Amino acid sequence: MNIRDIENAIIGKLKTVFSEVLVQGFPDKPAEFILLHPIGALLVHYQGSNYTSTDALGFISQENKKEFSITVVTRNLRKNEGAYEYIDKIKAVLTGFAPDGCSKLSPSKDFFISEKAGIWQYGVNFTLTTTNIQDLEI
Questions:
Q1: Is the pTM here over 0.70, yes or no?
Q2: How far apart are CA 13 and CA 2, in angstroms?
């Protein structure tokens, strides 16, 4: 499964539970993103990955640990429908979710990003493992 497919699977899972907020991929131009939704948004994006080393002389197969981040954008911090509530709910919903062809998602960290004019942003990161296999036909 490629990065886009995994991201779309995570977005789909979040949309089944969080119908009250905007759920989408992280914007291509983040500086131009304006929160217009009355409650908030969950923005999903790929953070990068690490590969296991290989000593293979021929066919290469590696574990690939990918990290995805959900940026929580809300108008409240502690109140109902605030950032803290969404951080906890996201962890509950995504922990153990396994997109096709991947291991189960597990949370790796959550963190403060920013606050500006009452708009709070936090990140919740998850990792999963896929396999990177040499394509012998290329």
A1: yes
A2: 17
